[in-house]
Write a structure and sequence with these properties.
Blueprint (H helix, E strand, L loop, with lengths): L12 H8 L3 H8 L9 H14 L5 H8 L4 E5 L7 H16 L3 E5 L10 H5 L3 E4 L6 H10 L3 E3 L13 H11 L5 E6 L5 H17 L6 E5 L3 H13 L4 E4 L2 H13 L9 E3 L5 H5 L6 E3 L2 H16 L14 E3 L11
Parallel strand pairs: 1-2, 1-3, 3-4, 5-6, 5-7, 7-8
Antiparallel strand pairs: 9-10
């Protein structure tokens, strides 16, 4: 009769050594990929094959105790909606860390603060924040939990990812002859600061192009929010809209079509992020494509450098950011 899972004996490195008739040290060197050992490739192959046959799995707690490392990278996320751009960023970082033998775990602290911080449970090698600097309370908690690597460090710089999308949106619309432009932000309070940053950059670009200040509104993803905004923009002579992201762009475009407008003849709309909805919407949405995969790989390299004691890069790589023009933007209508 099969034993209950809780009573099945765990296969150890000693079991692998006993089965092959080699030393426990040899098996340990192979399974841990210990550098500087003169073990033949034939022996390595035999050890790995036998470990797989016996169902050997490394004992992570024991490995962490012996090495002082858990090979866990904890990413602290801002309390934002998990949109396409952020998901792709995290997926690429997770893949890069997995290839290096590390596990990536994400954690979002909430304002209620009732749950136990994950760094106290997992004892990660690195805690990296995408939400800016850690609070004094979090730093104290991490020190107490034995976390050695925090990014950003309490007294170190914060990596600045350049934001080029709003400038590219405005210059694209300006190049098509649009002179009265609106900016459609998101009303989600969780991303208010990011929406404000993109609006300020868009207004700055408008000033550089000698345009009037942009008409602005923060929209929900609904007709009830977008429809009155579009009516007011049209009354003000707006011919084009730069949206915070592709979801907001789709909301604006959909409401405009239901109002009887024709895109892009009556209103041009450009989004941001090149999310799948941009190419599935009809008319297909112009947008800004950002190298979120490159950002994800950079984040992984920052975490790995800290985990392995190398110098941590402080400047992100040059990113490929550009306009993807589709059917939702065209030349401004002639007066």
């Amino acid at each position: 009769m099969q034993q209950p899972a809780s009573t099945v004996k765990r296969v150890t490195a000693a079991d692998v050594a006993r089965s092959l008739g080699v030393s426990r040290a040899t098996v340990g060197f192979v399974l841990n990929n210990t550098p500087g050992q003169t073990i033949s490739q034939q022996t390595r192959t035999r050890v790995l094959a036998e470990a797989k046959r016996l169902g050997y799995r490394p004992h992570m707690a024991a490995q962490a105790l012996a090495s002082g490392r858990t090979r866990i990278i904890l990413i602290v996320l801002p309390d934002w909606p998990l949109d396409f751009s952020l998901r792709r960023h995290l997926e690429e970082a997770s893949l890069a860390l997995d290839e290096a033998g590390y596990t990536m775990v994400t954690y979002t602290p909430h304002p209620t603060g009732q749950s136990r911080p994950l760094w106290e449970v997992l004892e990660p090698d690195v805690v990296l924040s995408l939400a800016g600097r850690f609070s004094a309370e979090h730093i104290e908690s991490m020190h107490a939990a034995g976390v050695r690597n925090m990014i950003p460090a309490p007294d170190g710089p914060v990596s600045d990812y350049p934001e080029q999308g709003p400038e590219l949106q405005l210059r694209h619309l300006y190049g098509l002859g649009h002179r009265r432009i609106a900016f459609a932000g998101s009303a989600d309070p969780r991303i208010a600061e990011l929406v404000q940053l993109r609006l300020e950059l868009a207004q700055q670009t408008a000033a550089e192009l000698r345009l009037e200040p942009l008409r602005t509104d923060r929209l929900e993803l609904s007709d009830e929010s977008a429809t009155p905004a579009i009516r007011e923009w049209r009354r003000q002579g707006v011919t084009a809209v730069a949206a915070y992201n592709d979801d907001i762009a789709a909301s604006v475009a959909g409401a405009a079509l239901r109002l009887g407008l024709t895109l892009p003849r009556d209103l041009s709309v450009i989004g941001h992020d090149d999310a799948p909805i941009a190419s599935m919407f009809q008319p297909r949405l112009s947008t800004i494509r950002v190298d979120t995969a490159g950002l994800g790989r950079f984040m992984a390299q920052v975490a790995l450098s800290a985990a392995e004691g190398r110098e941590v890069p402080t400047h992100p790589p040059a990113l490929r950011t550009g306009v993807v023009q589709r059917a939702s933007t065209s030349d401004a209508p002639q007066p």
